[in-house]
Amino acid sequence: MAWKKAELLAALKELRDRTDELMGLLDQQEDGVDVAPESSWSFPYTPESGSCTASFRIASETALRALLNPVQYVFECLTGGSETKALVALVQSGAPDQLGKQETLSIDELASRCKAVPDRLRAVIRISARLGILQETKPLSDVWTHTPHSLVLRKDSSAPIWAMTSWSQAFVTKIMDKVPDLVSQENAGKTGVELACGKASVFEILSEPQNADLSTYFNLTMKASSPFMAGGVADDYPWEQFGRDATVVDVGGGIGSQMIVVAKKHPKMQFVVQDLEHVCQGGRKFWQTQMPDDMSRRVHFQAHDFYTPQPVELPNNLRPSVYWMRWIIHDWDDDKAIKILQALRHSVQPGAKLLLGEFVVTEHLSKVAAQWMLSMLLYGGTERTEHEYGVLLAASGWKITKLYKTRSPLDIIECEAI
Ligand SMILES: C[S@@+](CC[C@H](N)C(=O)[O-])C[C@H]1O[C@@H](n2cnc3c(N)ncnc32)[C@H](O)[C@@H]1O
């Protein structure tokens, strides 16, 4: 295979241009600027930063691909899953919690606290440290300390991302094995969940009483994604257009974690979070025990199956100003997605507004969208392009009025009932 110098140079030039762009954005921004705590990992915190960071990432990946031997590159892609497993093992060993936030510990001390085999824990930690999760105080000293990225894996982190490792180990691993089978024609029409568990949908599994822990891990995983999703949702969509006292109906809202940042930013807004009864129970408990009164007072849970028409009345006689659905439509195939959208459409007047929070597929798939695309395939849903959303919505009595790109990886598809 001929070595193409021009391709490598183009990739490196692209990376340099994207670096300049990002530095330009940083230059315009004051240090210590006030950002929503939930968004604090995305800098620079400007509306353009989302697409700029995405372009930088694509450019750096392209440049690296051009620099590496192609076989090495593919070899590394095929072993990528080991990083996920190492992180699952790290969290399940208890190391992020056993190591104090400011502490430094040798591998033997840490392994003893975790009741772990030192050599094996060290291997798991070394893999994690390459990702910036824990670090050695000096190169090869075998004395370890936290990094900002390992701190978020502690159980006391405000984003319970640790729960994602339990969700991954208890459920995702099991169904991921089915991906190759899923692609085969003989399984057309079946989901990965059906092939692995014999159940129609992941939500059926989560509603079974014996899977209460699994359901908690799932809901906490949803909540954990708020830090890097909800800031963009709150800041880059004009929620104020619905009025100070507006009521947002969060359909399939889980425990309502997506609305935390919007509720903070709009202190008079009310929220009705609808989900299956067992999820609403967890949601009520979460808001009552973990959120301040002035916020939990404004969040009302209502059991509702989104395949059925909207309830005639909302709690507290509230009247809906806008409907919000994050990561609902992508969970389902076209037929089921249309049923959900139609059930809502039949309950509202022309002109009613619906906002879908989704990853809209573009030519360059973001890393998180690519990862979720596989999960959605396993659940029976899919990530869609703007055009595909348009077709789905038109078949259900809605039209897209605007696509909002936010500084988070989440896009907002604004729709109106026709
Ligand atoms: C991917 S989660 C998204 C949760 C929430 N919107 C968020 O972004 O954090 C999908 C949600 O749909 C809910 N769900 C599934 N089937 C449902 C149904 N038939 N009616 C209402 N909610 C349902 C699940 O319980 C779950 O909370």
Automatic annotation (TrEMBL):
Keyword annotations: Methyltransferase, S-adenosyl-L-methionine, Transferase
Any GO molecular function: O-methyltransferase activity
Positions of the O-methyltransferase C-terminal domain: 202-398
Any one Gene Ontology BP term: methylation
Superkingdom, natural source: Eukaryota
Keyword match Oxidoreductase: no
Protein name per UniProt: S-adenosyl-L-methionine-dependent methyltransferase
